[in-house]
Amino acid sequence: MALTSETSETSAPVAPKRSLEHWALLSGAILAAFAVLVLGTWIEPDPRGFGTHEKLGMGACNFLAWTGIPCPGCGVTTSVSLAAHGSFRAAFWNQPFGLIVALLAPLAALVAIVQHARGRDLGATLRALRPAWWGLGLGIAAAAGWAWKIVAMRAGHGG
C-alpha cells in the first residue's frame, strides 16, 4: 500500500500572513483618501488661494505672517478642496502640489486595496517600488509647487 497525501478539496485557502507594516500602509492609504475626498468636499476652498486649513480649526500660517512668503504647504489644502469639488484646473493654478496630493491619495488607496485583495504584503510591494525615488520625486514636486505659490502670491494672485 502506497502512502499518499490526502487533501480535502473543500478546504478553504489559507489567508496569507501580513506584516504590521502592511496593515499600517493599508490603513494610512485608506485614511488619506478619506481625508482628501471627504474633508476636501466638505470644506469650501478659501477664495484667497490659501488659508482653507483655518476652517478645520487650525491657526493662520505663522510663516507667512512672519516672512511675507508663503510656507511650503501654503495653498495645498485649498487645492485639495478645489480638486475635491471638481475644479482641477483651479487646483493646479492655485498650488500644483495640492492637486498631486488630491490625485495620489485616492490612487494610493485603490492600489493598496487591490494589492491587499491579491494577497500581497504592502510593505514588500512598497520596497519594490523604490520609495526613495518616489520620495525624491514628490519632494521636487513639493518644492516646485512652493516656488509656484511664491511667484503667484508675489504677482498679486492668491493662487
Name the features:
159 residues, mainly alpha, 7 helices, 62% helix
Describe this structure in words.
- With 159 residues, this protein is mostly helical.
- 62% of the residues lie in helices and 0% in strands.
- The chain is built from seven helices and no strands.
- 28% of the residues are buried.
Could you tell me how far the N terminus lies from the C terminus, measured between alpha carbons in angstroms? 82 Å
Total strands: 0
> Helical content, roughly?
55-70%
- The number of helices is 7
- Name the helix and strand elements from N-terminus to C-terminus, one letter apiece: HHHHHHH
Low confidence ranges:
none
Major sheet characteristics:
none
* Count of distinct structural domains: 1
Q: What overall geometry do the principal axes of the alpha carbons give?
A: elongated
Structural class estimated from helices and strands: mainly alpha
The rounded Rg comes to 22 Å
List the helices and strands and how they pair.
Layout: H1 20-42, H2 62-67, H3 76-84, H4 88-94, H5 96-117, H6 122-128, H7 131-154
Summarize, please:
The chain is mostly helical and 159 residues long. It has helices at residues 20-42, 62-67, 76-84, 88-94, 96-117, 122-128, 131-154. It has one domain (20-154).
